[in-house]
Amino acid sequence: MYEQIEKNFKYHAPKNQETVLAHETVRNECRHLANTLDTLLPNSREKSLAMTKLEEVMMWANASIARN
Length: 68
Known about the structure:
This protein has three helices and no strands. The protein has 68 residues and is mostly helical. The chain starts with a helix and ends with a helix.
């Protein structure tokens, strides 16, 4: 467990330009979907939850890139 904690709670610098590009692609795609949802969905609790979950998707996708 110690190794997993150390891995999960440290800074993961981009390994190379391909990693930087992967992070940028995830952010750009999530931003595009966020803008689409913002246009289509009425302001509501559900919209707020959808946006929060999309932020979580972006965070976990970028964590996957950084940690592995």
